Amino acid sequence: MKSFVLLFCLAQLCHCLSLPNGLSPAYRQLNCDDPETEQAALLAVDYINSHIHQGYKHVLNQIDKVQVWAQPTGESFKLEIDTLETTCHALDPTPLANCSVRQLTQHAVEGDCDVRLLKQNGQFSVSFVKCKSSPDSAEDVRKVCLDCPLLAPLNDTRVVHAVEAALAAFNAQNNGSYFQLVEISRAQLVPLPVSVHVEFAVAATDCVAKEVIDPAKCNLLAEKQYGFCKATLTEKVGGEDVAVTCTVFQTQPVVLLPQPDGPDVGVPGPVADAVTPAPSPADLPVASLVVGPVVVAASQLPPPVHRAHYDLRHAFAGVGSGESASGEAFHVEKPPKVAHPNTAAAAGPVVRPCPGRIRYFKI
């Protein structure tokens, strides 16, 4: 018996010595619906939304896994979370809490993210994110609604034409800045009546909409002003009707970069080159402008290169994303199995630790 105890102790010592320097084997088990876990997940979603500039904002739908490991400087949280696309564009300043979740009948999109956070002195910071997203399957959409239109490829010629016609109609009725297309964000082909529903992002230029002769000579404003449009183009005998609604967001100030030490230290420099000042507030378009129906002629411009939706896999542009230059891989260690055969189970309902609750619906 003594030999067995000695052998066990030596095995434990070898295990501890085999760990990398500074790495603690301590592991803390958390429930996926624990308030601390949810706090980390919500911060991760905020981080994700702050680093996407195309497509739509996402909300937390479910926490699939959580692992907490002790680190020399705090605790490392590793989460697997599911998100759902909202109706708020990534450039929309609307708080996430006020954004509606895209419903199944609207052909919902789900995100799947691996996140790593560090908790120090009670504060979380995101150190790594890797995401992907995909639309609901056509079969699942049909189960909910037989007549609901599905997502259409964004480079479909009908989609591109609908966006061009809608933007032209908006600029024709606009008394302020001329707006240029930033991206086609979403499209659906409706069979009856034959129509195309599109959503797209726009940005204000230094040109006045009523005076534009050559749009190629218009430049985006230094203080970026974005807008988001929804439009429906309906085919008619001898033409087509376009109904478009655009919401123009407040201007975004120029981001200033820190300057190196030198004679010009303390003098900030803008990221973008200075352009013609923005029109006065009286000349800016109203927050929401509805145009239509308007009869327009078809155009045959080549479609831009776009996917069917903006995958979160390609959406990140900031440090710490899965596409970052660090090349850091997301490795998930297996938590230790702890068995206590002589300990009686605590009274009360059995709590399923993970995955956590579904906040909206599962795709």
From TrEMBL:
Keyword match Repeat: yes
Keywords associated with the record: Disulfide bond, Glycoprotein, Phosphoprotein, Repeat, Secreted, Signal
Pfam families listed in its UniProt record: Cystatin (PF00031)
Subcellular location: Secreted
Domain Cystatin fetuin-A-type: 27-132, 143-254
Primary localisation category: secreted
Superkingdom, taxonomy of origin: Eukaryota
GO molecular function annotations of the record: cysteine-type endopeptidase inhibitor activity; endopeptidase inhibitor activity
GO biological process: acute-phase response; negative regulation of bone mineralization; ossification; positive regulation of phagocytosis; regulation of inflammatory response
UniProt xrefs under CDD domains: CY (cd00042)
Signal peptide: 1-16
Family matches, as PANTHER family: ALPHA-2-HS-GLYCOPROTEIN (PTHR13814:SF6), FETUIN (PTHR13814)
Name of protein: Alpha-2-HS-glycoprotein
Organism listed in the record: Equus caballus (Horse)
Record lineage: Eukaryota, Metazoa, Chordata, Craniata, Vertebrata
